[in-house]
């Protein structure tokens, strides 16, 4: 796929206007306040993985509306504690899988919490273990369109709340330094990490790659690839629903979360990405911290990959993330 979005020089200046709802902050404050009524941890059970250099626990914490959300929590065996923590969010349609699948961060010396995606896990990978009991609102079958006609009903209101609560949960776990917590994710996970950066003012760092739900309106005009394609397919059938859908999506816009973020931030994007167009990543990066002062942090950087699509920098991006986070966390 040839480059299809803006040239790099224009991406570096790309600061689109936002159709941001006046009650954006109140909406999320009210949503999180309700979730905070519940104690974060439900259970922490050790798991035998057959691995000798890591210790793993099956964690259940309370997310949106107090719903139980599953996660894997892993520590380096015999590590000196407390450790800085990485909370990792996973891609669209994927579940947390098996506990031995994602070991990069724990092998780098971090406590690692891998959050399951509620109501997902059936598209690829090794499945998930967190149902979503709030699926009765109008919308299509995919997560991007579940509850699309109201911000109160949309799937991502619940998933973003889960993501914020995952930070609360990891800070309550043994062996963790709560003052040093990072949010990490790619694609849907990148969008969740960015939302967490905007909603958790004392987050230690955000690592965001190929983020979904950034520059949503432009992305809907640029690509028919899923997940954005699921939204356009829904609107192609429900021809009178466009205004309601755009209103809902305005409460989920990653650029709005980016504007409110405080934490140091590391971004990456493939310039040929037709799934999450690079203009969304740059829009979030260029407006990052503009309401909080976080945009002035010299530890904010973005890495474009001119010949890559949604795979972005893959292992090269991870190598850069490891070095950057070690400096930010003073590991």
CATH superfamily: Alpha/Beta hydrolase fold, catalytic domain
Number of helices, counting only DSSP H or I runs of 4 residues or more: 11
Tell me, rounded to a whole number, the average pLDDT: 96
CATH topology: Rossmann fold
Indicate the CATH class. Answer: Alpha Beta
Sheet with most strands: 9 strands, mixed
Strand content: 15-25%
The side-by-side strand order for the widest beta sheet comes to 1-2-3-5-4-6-7-8-9
Total individual domains: 1
Shape: globular
Order of helices and strands: HHEEEEHEHEHEHHHHEHEH
Given the helix and strand composition, which structural class is it? alpha/beta
Q: State the CATH architecture.
A: 3-Layer(aba) Sandwich
Distance between the termini: 39 Å
CA gyration radius, whole angstroms: 18 Å
How many beta-strand elements? 9
Share of helical residues: 25-40%
Residue runs with pLDDT of under 50 for 5 or more positions: none
Active site: 187, 273, 310
GO molecular function, one term: carboxylic ester hydrolase activity
Domain Acetyl xylan esterase: 1-326
InterPro entries: AB_hydrolase_fold, AXE1_dom, CE7
Question: Would you write up a description of this structure?
Answer:
The structure is a single chain. The protein has a 9-stranded mixed sheet with strand order 1-2-3-5-4-6-7-8-9, sandwiched between helices. 52% of the residues are buried. The protein has one domain: Rossmann fold (3-Layer(aba) Sandwich). It contains 11 helices and 9 strands. The chain has 331 residues and is α/β, with parallel strands linked by helices. α10 links the parallel β8 and β9. The model has no long low-confidence stretch (mean pLDDT 96). The protein is globular, with a radius of gyration of 18 Å.
């Amino acid at each position: 796929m040839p480059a299809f979005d803006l040239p790099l020089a224009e991406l570096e200046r790309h600061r689109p206007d936002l159709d941001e709802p006046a009650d954006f902050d109140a909406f999320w404050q009210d949503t999180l306040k309700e979730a905070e009524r519940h104690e974060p941890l439900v259970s922490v059970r050790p798991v035998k993985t057959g691995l000798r250099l890591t210790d793993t626990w099956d964690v259940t914490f309370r997310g949106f509306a107090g719903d139980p959300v599953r996660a894997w929590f892993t520590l380096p065996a015999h590590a000196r504690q407390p450790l800085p923590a990485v909370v990792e969010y996973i891609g669209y349609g994927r579940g947390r899988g098996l506990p031995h699948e994602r070991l990069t961060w724990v092998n780098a010396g971090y406590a690692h919490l891998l959050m399951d995606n509620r109501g997902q896990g059936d598209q690829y990978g090794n499945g998930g273990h967190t149902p979503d009991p709030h699926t009765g609102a109008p919308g299509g079958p995919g997560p991007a369109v579940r509850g699309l006609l109201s911000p109160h009903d949309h799937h991502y209101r619940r998933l973003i709340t889960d993501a914020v609560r995952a930070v609360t949960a990891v800070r309550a776990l043994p062996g963790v330094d709560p003052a040093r917590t990072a949010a990490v994710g790619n694609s849907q996970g990148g969008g969740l990490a960015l939302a967490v950066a905007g909603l958790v003012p004392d987050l230690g760092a955000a690592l965001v790659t190929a983020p979904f739900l950034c520059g949503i309106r432009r992305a809907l005009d640029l690509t028919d690839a899923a997940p954005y394609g699921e939204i356009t397919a829904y609107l192609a059938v429900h021809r009178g629903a466009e205004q309601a859908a755009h209103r809902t999506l305005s409460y989920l816009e990653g650029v709005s979360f980016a504007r409110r973020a405080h934490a140091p931030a590391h971004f990456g994007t493939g310039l040929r990405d037709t799934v999450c167009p690079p203009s969304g990543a740059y829009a979030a990066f260029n407006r990052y911290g503009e309401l909080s002062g976080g945009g002035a942090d010299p530890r904010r950087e973005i890495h474009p990959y001119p010949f890559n699509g949604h795979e972005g920098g893959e292992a090269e991006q991870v190598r850069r993330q490891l070095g950057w986070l070690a400096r930010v966390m003073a590991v």
